Amino acid sequence: MTVSRRSFVATIGATVGAGATGILAAPLISWRGHEDLIAQQGTPAAAEPHAERLLASLPGMIRLDSNENPNGPGPRALDAIAHRMGLSNRYPVKESDDLLHAVAAVRGVKPENVLLGCGSGELLRAAVYGFTSSSLALAEPEPTFEAPGNFAKFLSRAVNAPPVDAKLATDLDTLSDASRNAGLVYFCNPNNPTATVHTASDVTAFVERVMRASPDAVVLVDEAYHEYVANPDYATAIPIALANPRVVVTRTFSKVFGMAGLRVGYAVGQPATLKKMSPWLLGSNVNQVALAGAAATVADKAHVAAEVRRNADARAFTRHFFETEGYAVHGAEANFMMIDIRRDAKAFKLECAKHKVAIGRRFPSLPTYARVSIGTMPEMKKAVAVFRTVLATQVSSSSH
Question: N or C of the chain: less Cβ packing under 10 Å?
Fold first, then answer.
């Protein structure tokens, strides 16, 4: 049986009216699972996340799958975007400089210490290009955000990936050991997908160990979820990056600022370090409206505080549910958490989708852990009811 992407989309779209059960009765899932459907198409593994996002974006779905901000951009960003639309026919020039200066002012650095990217994803790719080679590997924990590792493998560069520890925290000792033949060490803090975080003193000591272990390694600290951290001992690594030419910090407007669909991020480091990344970036890589929205919101402390508060409340509610039901949550220092549901995470994900709740993809190294992004409080109340039903149903089914 041959299924094209067009017919795949048409099939899932046609079943929306039949309700969520109808969605999953379609070839998308009931035909041996949508992963098998992707395999039948002969498409690369990268197509699977796309298929899952298609499912998550169906009408009526509660979208807890991609660590997005459910509230979207703030009023300042939306107003700036609306006013900038008239310049959408022009390539941005001064507008890029405006955002560089705005970011620099907020972060207490100089504009030359900032490098803009089409989301932080473009910057991570540039770092893999700029700091790894056929003889210099990428070192990262397993699991972590997959984009750097996937791109390194695409370039046929070695990837050293020691596992996280028993509480899902990045094992900094094994990661520093893995940096010995590395050109780039990717350190996501808080880590995606585990939502665990390391303190400022942990990060400082880790960087020092890497500096001693590997004379060539650059440490990239990905702080995509920085604003959501509640641990008082946590702090940004930007001061380390300003002092050390072998450290870079990346940030994004995709999370707390609610601009995931606009694609804008930035790196902070010494100019000579950023210069090794910049050749791998596209020209005019951040579009006009994204530049406007980001420049208007980067200093909006009230918006950030409100988003952090909303996330913290819904996160605490969700964590309380799982822990009260007896499921382990080792970390929740972001806008998502991973829960040991003590059963196959893929089956749990697909069953939740039947009830119109989309959660995160399965991570092969943690097959019984489900990643749940945090939505609005009303969304999380609906989602928790679904989780309760699905967990009870799966336990009942497995007992027969």
Answer: C
| Amino acid 19: pLDDT | 42
Percent composition of the chain: helix, strand, coil (DSSP 3-state, to 5)? 50, 10, 40
Q: Give domain status of residue 367, yes or no.
A: no
Q: Are residues 49 and 82 in the same domain?
A: no
Q: Is residue 353 part of a domain?
A: no
Range of the domain at 126: 75-299
Closest listed residue to residue 208, CA positions, set 170, 165, 237: 237
- What single-letter amino acid sits at 91? Y
What is the CA 12 to chain-centroid distance, rounded?
26
Q: Are 49 and 110 in a shared domain?
A: no
Considering 276, 299, 322, which residue would you say is the last residue of a domain?
299
Answer whether residue 33 shows pLDDT above 50: no
- Report how far residue 187's alpha carbon sits from residue 229's, in angstroms, rounded to the nearest whole number: 16
CA-atom Rg of the chain in angstroms = 21
Token pair of 50 as six digits = 């796309």
Number of structural domains (the chain) is: 2
Length of the chain: 400
Q: What is the mean pLDDT of residues 147-170?
A: 97
Q: Is residue 400 in some structural domain? A: no
Is the pLDDT at 397 greater than 70? The verdict is no
357-359/62-64 β-pairing:
parallel
| SS3 per-residue string spanning 258-320 | CCCCCCCEEEECCHHHHHCCHHHCCCCCCCHHHHHHHHHHCCCHHHHHHHHHHHHHHHHHHHH
Whether 309 maps to a domain, the answer reads: no
Backbone angles phi, psi at 188, to 5 degrees: -85, 120
**What is the arithmetic mean of pLDDT over 153-165?**
98
Q: Is 209 in the same domain as 103?
A: yes
pLDDT of residue 44 exceeding 50, the answer is: no
Please give the model's pTM, rounded to 2 decimal places: 0.87
Distance CA 275, CA 1 (A): 50
